Design the sequence.
């Protein structure tokens, strides 16, 4: 593990020259009325949160990464690369596919012809120029997969030698990487540099499994002040769907922990946790989309349009339907009660 950990440290330093950001956002994918992707709106959205967020997972689950077709995934990745280069932010490209073969095909497509046949050094240089810090994969889907099967599938991906982020998302895959499987992969593959857990169970982070310097981020929402290593928790940072709307507050929370002001961080955490729990409870019964996307699109509507939001059509989802008016009205009330409703939208003026 020692040699692997040393090499991993070198890879992380190369892919994150300014250090790994503590706060990451899986950017929402917005749609026009005709269902095509609205990159102009996505640009304005990203510009609104970029002062507080330095790392993005695109497309992540919150950005409909599981639902986008191959051409849309490439379009969204191209958008991410352009914005990453413009704003000097770090990117993890989402490779959210349900089987290993599809993951490898998508990674190859995201690499493009430019990197085909290149040496490892030149491939890493190309990635750095594009601000791509890694490719994000989940275990293949299947609730009956054994740990050896999960290990074998992830080994295929890691054998590509590319900087890789592992994403624990049993809500979609139906399974989890066990701590011992994670530790085994960490021992073998220095290019496994990043780990995200959105399960809400935090089994790997809390198990003490040796990660050899893998950067660990929490994706589950709530009780934020308790989870970072700077607050004696098990994680290095956050990769949160709610950074789409509460990036400023999350940055302030992290800053409070960094300067040892637990009281300020805890106060922000309590307010965000209460508001987010209420919004998530609103969207849980909806039969379309996923709660992470639906809750954040409901909130983002008010952050985008400000005081004119009530007169605008509700957000359009990947499924081709809009969020119900009742959900939108209740979301507005929640944001107002917790003093989170913005005075002006990022699309105004």
Sequence:
């Amino acid at each position: 593990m020692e040699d692997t950990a040393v090499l991993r440290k070198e890879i992380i330093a190369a892919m994150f020259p300014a250090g790994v950001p503590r706060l990451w956002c899986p950017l929402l994918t917005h749609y026009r009325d005709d269902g095509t992707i609205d990159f102009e709106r996505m640009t304005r959205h990203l510009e609104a949160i970029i002062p507080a967020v330095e790392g993005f997972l695109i497309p992540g689950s919150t950005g409909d990464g599981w639902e986008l077709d191959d051409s849309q995934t490439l379009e969204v990745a191209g958008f991410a690369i352009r914005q990453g280069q413009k704003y000097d932010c770090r990117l993890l490209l989402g490779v959210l596919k349900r089987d290993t073969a599809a993951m490898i095909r998508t990674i190859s497509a995201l690499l493009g012809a430019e990197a085909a046949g290149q040496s490892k050094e030149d491939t890493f240089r190309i990635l750095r120029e594009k601000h791509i810090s890694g490719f994000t994969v989940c275990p293949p889907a299947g609730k009956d997969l054994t740990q050896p099967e999960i290990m074998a599938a992830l080994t295929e991906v890691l054998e590509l030698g590319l900087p890789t982020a592992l994403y624990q998302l049993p809500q979609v895959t139906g399974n989890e990487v066990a701590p011992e499987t994670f530790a085994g992969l960490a021992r073998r593959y220095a290019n496994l540099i990043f780990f995200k857990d959105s399960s809400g169970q935090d089994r790997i982070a809390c198990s003490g499994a040796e990660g050899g310097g893998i950067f660990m981020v929490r994706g589950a929402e709530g009780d934020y002040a308790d989870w970072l290593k700077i607050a004696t928790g098990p994680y290095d940072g956050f990769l949160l769907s709610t950074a789409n709307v509460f990036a400023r507050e999350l940055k302030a929370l992290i800053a409070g922990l960094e300067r040892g002001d637990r009281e300020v961080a805890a106060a922000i955490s309590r307010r965000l946790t209460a508001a987010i729990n209420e919004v998530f409870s609103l969207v849980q019964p909806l039969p379309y989309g996923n709660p992470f996307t639906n809750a954040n699109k409901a909130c983002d509507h008010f952050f985008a349009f400000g005081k004119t939001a009530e007169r605008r059509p509700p957000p359009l989802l990947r499924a081709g339907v809009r969020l119900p008016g009742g959900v939108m009205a209740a979301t507005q009330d929640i944001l107002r009660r917790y003093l989170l409703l913005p005075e002006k939208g990022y699309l105004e003026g």
